[in-house]
From TrEMBL:
<dbReference type="InterPro" id="IPR000182">
    <property type="entry name" value="GNAT_dom"/>
</dbReference>
<keyword id="KW-0808">Transferase</keyword>
<protein>
    <submittedName>
        <fullName>GNAT family N-acetyltransferase</fullName>
    </submittedName>
</protein>
<keyword id="KW-0012">Acyltransferase</keyword>
<dbReference type="Pfam" id="PF00583">
    <property type="entry name" value="Acetyltransf_1"/>
</dbReference>
<feature type="domain" description="N-acetyltransferase">
    <location>
        <begin position="4"/>
        <end position="159"/>
    </location>
</feature>
<dbReference type="InterPro" id="IPR016181">
    <property type="entry name" value="Acyl_CoA_acyltransferase"/>
</dbReference>
<dbReference type="InterPro" id="IPR050832">
    <property type="entry name" value="Bact_Acetyltransf"/>
</dbReference>
Amino acid sequence: MLLADVRTAAPGDATAISRLLAEAIRDGYGEALGDIRVGWLVSDHCALPRIRAEIEIPGGAPAWLGWLVAADTDGTVVGAVSGGVPVDSEGEIYALCVTPGRQREGVGTALLEAATGRMRAHGAAYQRITLPVEQAPALPFFTRHGFGTLTPVRLGRGL
């Protein structure tokens, strides 16, 4: 399937985002973090009420610029990203995930570019992300996109 677009998440996307994020956490970090920590991350970050509430927050407040989703032409959500500009001129990616079967097809790149555009529009000149563990599965993706290591789990790049 072809990627149709990256768009602002709608209330109807909450379940897809929740499932996709939970799957990414379990698959990507289960072995490194163990069942208890993964269970905590999933219950905290992927709870459907939380995702629904986050979608309802207008994406115009710099600290929270909202959720974006990547959807196939049939409307299936295949990726999601959230972020904001919590500190003047510093953007933060809070989450970025892509359906495992759709990785390495440009979905993550399209999501990162869209989130970066929003951050730049709110004055970000720098962008950061915190990964759950050192040597996270997403590390090569972020390195390819110009992020450098700030700490073993914190990455950043100039925009």
